[in-house]
Amino acid sequence: xNSYPRFYNFKVSSRGSIREPPNPITxxxxxxxxxxAFQDSSEVIRNWNDVSIKADKLVGGKYLAVKNLLQLAxxxxxxILLRVNSLGSAFTDDNLSxxxxxxxxxxxxxxxxxxxxxxxxxxxxxxxxxxxxxxxVTATFLNAPAKxxxxxxxxxxxxxxxxxxxPSLVFMP
Length: 173
Prior knowledge:
The longest helix has 17 residues, at 127-143. The chain starts with 7 loop residues before the first helix and ends with a helix. It is globular. The model has no long low-confidence stretch (mean pLDDT 80). It has 2 domains: 5-68, no CATH class; 98-171, no CATH class. By secondary structure, the protein is mostly helical. It has helices at 8-13, 24-34, 41-51, 60-71, 74-85, 93-96, 118-121, 127-143, 154-165, 168-171.
């Protein structure tokens, strides 16, 4: 842990029964701040996991959420980080761990003829379609009455992403 003094606070903040280990959003902020110092965030995470107790390790859904958030482009990542920081966020570790959230994901659609221009791009998630889906999910969540708000499940978020990916080719110049 000596080689990563900036992560000392992570270790200290997760001690005791009241405190919890850092969440994926905290990880993304920290890794973005480290930025140029560490090209490979997986090395930092691997070193963290080597020295941490089992409860503090970044594995499973939390690891996938961090990995997906780091792969997102600027505006898409900014939208998520902005909404998570506000009171009442629609995003959870579970729904952010979906690989379908990362632009470039190809949804399985009806096969088009090989000669068709729709064959390669139809249903492919772009930055714009991902941003549109995230804004829609956030607006739906915030427009519901406070007592009736439910965070979308992973499947709900994936459905919204797929719906926004379908017209992305049609409306793009």
